[in-house]
Each structure stands twice: as structure tokens, then as C-alpha cells.
Amino acid sequence: MFDSLSDRLTGVLSDLRGKGRLSDADIDRTCREIRLALLEADVSLPVVRTFIAKIKERAKGAEVSGALNPAQQVVKIVNEELIGILGGETRRISLAKTPPTVIMLAGLQGAGKTTLAGKLGNWLIKQGHTPMLVACDLQRPGAVSQLQIVGERAGVPVFAPHAGTGVGGEGALGVSAGDPVAVARAGVEQARTEQRDVVIIDTAGRLGLDDELMQQASDIRAATDPDEVLFVVDAMIGQDAVTTAQAFADGVGFTGVVLTKLDGDARGGAALSVREVTGQPIMFASSGEKLDDFDVFHPDRMASRILG
Ligand code: GDP
């Protein structure tokens, strides 16, 4: 991801090299090219507009500094503004004062929630936590057993309504297997009993946005009062990522974003738009199917990667 954007931006910026002074026309031309590169990378138009306006204003107003030549100064400004749209500082999980900390995962089907549950659980264990996964995706056949497999691989226990199948019958704590809200509530309770300090709730996704999905996610949120609601979004879906993020922000609300499939060859605009559009920070990034293909999201590292 970002290869072509990165190539374009480094190309545009290296054209400035060797210039002793940048005229307003140089800056305007450079900004036009950066704008095109961002739009081609699928970054959403309002985000591009704000970004370019800031670059232009800062580049034209930049004092000539002894340490940096004009081209380096523009690169520095672009870098700082990229870090800005990616959220500035790294945002850590906010832990509950009284455990367990509840983390709810929300997003479309196929976004990578179940995979993420395992990765996040595994990462939390390495941080010294004692996580537990709760299987509340009771919609998709096989989702509960998928989470159980993921949990086993990650070494994280899974609370599920009915071992193996996820449908039919009464399961653990006598919770009806068909009611994700009750399962979520019972899962948090179970974590408290077992003194697990973080609960990760995997919820159902749909292939598209629908009211029922939003309502169910809202109900689970209301019932469990999570410390974090992480919106999981496939970075490969381009502009749709922004539309989906907005719909989840309005319908459920979330406190952070997880970008998945950053290992793909999509153009990456989603990654660059979602923070600015929703106002919520990107907290984690997933870049493959293995447990370790996962990290805390660092805006500065991502900006350096984009600028080559
Ligand atoms: P869910 O429906 O949101 O729970 O999504 P899943 O966790 O089942 O993931 C959907 C598909 O995407 C699965 O085949 C995963 O292996 C795959 N997947 C998840 N995260 C990543 C990632 O970061 N990179 C790649 N390449 N594939 C991923």
C-alpha cells in the first residue's frame, strides 16, 4: 500500500531540490501535483482540500531558515501535515479504572474483526494483560467457531454462547445463543468472575450498511458500556471506507479506528482520510493474516513511509 502515492510524492518533492528560492508559482505547482497524487490515491476530497490549503499557506509563509533549503522546508511541512491528518500522536487504549476494560469491535463483515480479536488479544498478553474474547457475532454461520479457533491460536480464552456452533440451545451461563446483547453482557460478567482484565467483544458485521446491524451494535454498546469501541475497516475498500466510517460514527459511535489489510495493494486513501473525516484516531494497524502482522498505529512512522 502507498507505493504509488509514495513514488508520486517523492517525485514531486524532489523536483524542488536544487532551487535556491521557491516562488509562489513553484509552490502553487507543487501543491497542484500533491493534490493530484492524493486524489489518485483515493484520499477524500475535503481532506485533500484542507491539506493542500495548509501546505500552501505554510510554504508561502515559511521563513528562510539557515538549516534547511526551501525544498527541504516544503518536505518538512508536508511531513508534519501528513502526521497531522494521520492523527498526530499515537493514541493508546484507555484502560478502565476498575477492570475489566471492555473493548468492542465493530465494522462490516469481512473487515477483519475476528482476525483482529486474536491479534489484539495476543498483543495484550504480551503487554501483561489477561484478555478474554466474547463471541457476539451470532449472525454469520461459523463465526463463533472461527473466533474459538482464533482464540486458541492466540492463547486467549473465548466466551461463547454455545460451544462450537454458536446457534441453538442454551450455552454458558444459560444465555440464549441467539441474543448477542445478552451474550456480551454475560461475557463481561464472566471476565469479571475469572478476573480477566480486558474483554474483547467481537460483533456481527454485514456486507453492507443496514439499520439492524447498527441497532444491534448500539444495543451491545449500551449494554456493556465499553471503554473503547474500535471501528475495524478494510483499507482496501477505498472511498467506501470513509462512507462506512461515517455511518458507524453516526449509528454506533466509536472511540478509535483499526485499519486492516494494509498489506494490500490498494491506493491507501482510506488510511489518510478516516481520521480527518471521523475525528477519531487510528489506533492499530493490521497488515496480514498472521498473529504478528499487527501493531500500534504510529502517525509519524506512516508519514515517513509515505514520503519514502
Ligand atoms: P470479520 O468478518 O470482520 O470478522 O473478518 P475476518 O476476521 O473473518 O476477516 C476476513 C478475511 O480477511 C479473512 O480471510 C482474514 O484472514 C482476512 N484478513 C483479516 N485481516 C487481514 C489483514 O490485515 N491482511 C490480509 N491480507 N488479510 C486479512
TrEMBL record:
Its EC number is 3.6.5.4. It is found in: Cytoplasm. Its main location: cytoplasm. GTP binds at residues 107-114, 202-206, 260-263. Keywords: Cytoplasm, GTP-binding, Hydrolase, Nucleotide-binding, Ribonucleoprotein, RNA-binding, Signal recognition particle. The keyword Cytoplasm applies. It comes from the Bacteria. It catalyses: GTP + H2O = GDP + phosphate + H(+). Residues 281-294 form the SRP54-type proteins GTP-binding domain. GO terms for biological process: SRP-dependent cotranslational protein targeting to membrane. GO terms for cellular component: signal recognition particle. GO terms for molecular function: 7S RNA binding; GTP binding; GTPase activity. Part of the signal recognition particle protein translocation system, which is composed of SRP and FtsY. Involved in targeting and insertion of nascent membrane proteins into the cytoplasmic membrane. Binds to the hydrophobic signal sequence of the ribosome-nascent chain (RNC) as it emerges from the ribosomes. The SRP-RNC complex is then targeted to the cytoplasmic membrane where it interacts with the SRP receptor FtsY. Composed of three domains: the N-terminal N domain, which is responsible for interactions with the ribosome, the central G domain, which binds GTP, and the C-terminal M domain, which binds the RNA and the signal sequence of the RNC. Belongs to the GTP-binding SRP family. SRP54 subfamily. This is Signal recognition particle protein. It comes from Gordonia asplenii. The chain holds residues 1 to 308 of 527 of the full protein.
